[in-house]
Design goal:
With 91 residues, the protein is an all-alpha fold. It has a domain of 60 residues. Helix content is 65%, strand content 0%. The protein is built from 5 helices and no strands. The radius of gyration is 19 Å and the shape is elongated.
Length: 91
């Protein structure tokens, strides 16, 4: 099973990262992307929402591609957790 994930994880993250990053079209060409890609009517008043959504999709897609090549394990963050104070939501 480990071999399967070692072989398929990187191509999976690259492919899905590219597909996700294509959502950045909303940030740069909101009218065209809304009408042709998203198949929704373009309303000028909501341009900033479309651009924000497109920017967030683009950033997440780029991070997915980066995650395919950079391995950040949980070890870097696991040393932070014991030093923190208890959460505000403790019962």
């Amino acid at each position: 099973m480990k071999r399967f994930f070692d072989l398929t994880l990187r191509p999976f993250f690259v492919l899905t990262g590219i597909i996700t990053a294509l959502g950045a079209l909303n940030a740069f060409w909101p009218q065209w992307a809304a009408e042709k890609v998203d198949l929704i009517p373009f309303i000028q008043d909501y341009t900033i929402i479309l651009q924000h959504w497109g920017f967030m999709l683009g950033v997440m897609g780029v991070f997915m591609i980066i995650a395919a090549f950079v391995r950040l394990g949980a070890t870097r963050f696991s040393s932070i957790a014991p030093s923190r104070k208890p959460s505000l939501f403790t019962w």
